[in-house]
Design brief:
single chain; 406 residues; alpha/beta; Globin-like; Elongation Factor Tu (Ef-tu), domain 3; Rossmann fold; six-stranded antiparallel beta sheet; six-stranded parallel beta sheet; disordered N terminus; FAD binding; detoxification
Length: 406
């Protein structure tokens, strides 16, 4: 996406779209919530693509509202949001979103704008947004076409879904279980980047539609299997247990087959630098970090790596044995509320939470920083790194689920 992208939008269209920025700031989430409601009423088959849990709790409408707002704000310089476009396109490719889906989405987005804003949504505004959406959709389709080709043409690659057999199932903690996946066809596996994820299609008996979920690969690339490590999500505040994580933990057995799309994601370790790397995780956010950590130890043994993980206590902390075997001074565990058993083992180095003062004692300032975990944890880590004045280009993070804002 470049300046050429906006050449098809005339000055009047750009000015009209930019004029809607204050309106989108106020009504954006109402528009996207209404959009999804109408879309699924008329096209229930699209529930097979969109995560319905994120719909119910409001995460997906909020994420789309942020994206639409950014598109309006930068409609005259779309290259500014190119990283966001690529990030969403990675997710779309993993979910097998196709070009024919875009006109449907565009139609219902314009309907939602008109129905929520009422008379304020003049013909000029609707026409301008129609033109702008067409340009943005074409950009997504072009980027995703290249991604599909790359996924299919790489050694061992494929598009769509490929059946994988569960070759092993290992409980890593009270909450997290690892699944070792091998291709049912016995073919080769493409090498992924450490930190990327798989999309699995859960075809659950009794459910009216499929459920697609992304899970980080928790093993270094180059193995004859893929490994995902899944936390069983327990419901809180009236919300039910996670449909797919419960199915994986409770129903899926060794020998079962699961449809999987090729590895995807733009959050991965930069292996083309010898700069020190600091991996910071909270809870199940350690899964992509395990892939990065293992890769760095196997392929870049001279690289300085610091692994920092925060958990409630040892019972919910996965991969403890591996971390025990780390080189002294390279792995640091923080337990919020350590148990008596944790105290006996003495595996953790700090009780409570990560602080900037403590972080400065274990992490080199000139490092690349990667972090992942619950949103509140990520917000706190991001704030620390900003306070430390770590340059933005050396700060990398990933949300589990729709992209939020830190």
């Amino acid at each position: 996406m470049s300046a050429k992208t906006t050449e098809t939008l005339n000055k009047q269209t750009i000015e009209t779209v930019k004029a809607t920025v204050p309106v989108l700031e106020e009504y954006g989430e109402a528009i996207t919530t209404h959009f999804y409601q109408r879309l699924f009423e008329d096209h229930p088959e699209l529930k097979n693509i969109f995560n319905q849990t994120h719909q119910h709790v409001g995460d997906q409408p909020k994420a789309l509202a942020n994206t639409v707002y950014a598109a309006a704000q930068y409609i005259d310089q779309l290259e500014v949001i190119l990283p966001r476009v690529k990030q969403i396109a990675e997710k779309h490719r993993s979910l097998n979103v196709q070009p024919e889906h875009y006109p449907i989405v565009g139609e219902y987005l314009l309907k939602a704008i008109k129905e929520v804003l009422g008379e304020a949504a003049t013909d000029d505004i609707i026409n301008a947004w129609g033109n702008a959406y067409g340009v943005i959709a074409d950009a997504f389709i072009g980027v995703e076409k290249e991604m599909y080709q790359e996924a299919e043409q790489q050694k061992g690659g494929w598009t769509g879904y490929r059946l994988f057999k569960v070759a092993g199932k290992v409980q890593e903690s009270d909450e997290i279980t690892s699944f070792y996946l091998e291709p049912e066809d016995g073919g080769e596996l493409p090498v992924y980047k450490p930190g990327q994820y798989l999309t699995i299609k859960a075809e659950i008996p009794g459910e009216s539609y499929d459920h697609l979920r992304q899970y980080s690969l928790s093993e270094a690339p180059g193995k004859p299997y893929y490994r995902i490590s899944v936390k069983k999500e327990l419901g809180t505040a009236g919300q039910p247990d996670g449909i797919v994580s419960s199915w994986l933990h409770d129903k899926v057995k060794t020998g079962d087959s699961i449809p999987v799309s090729a590895p995807a994601g733009d959050f991965y370790l930069n292996a083309h630098t010898d700069r020190p790397v600091v991996l910071i995780s909270g809870g199940v956010g350690l899964t992509p970090m395990m892939s990065m950590w293992r890769y760095a130890r196997e392929k870049q043994p001279e690289r300085e790596v610091r692994f920092i993980h925060a958990a409630r206590n040892g019972s919910v902390h996965a991969f403890k044995e591996e971390i025990k075997g780390a080189k002294p001074g390279t792995a640091h565990l923080i337990y919020e509320k350590p148990s008596e058993e944790d105290m006996k083992q003495g595996l953790y180095v700090r009780e409570g939470y990560i602080s900037l003062e403590w972080l400065k004692t274990v992490a080199p300032e000139h490092a690349e920083f990667y972090f992942c975990g619950p949103e509140g944890f990520m917000r706190a880590v991001n704030h620390m790194l900003q306070e430390w004045r770590i340059p933005e280009e050396r700060i990398h993070y990933e949300f589990f689920g729709p992209q939020g804002v830190l």
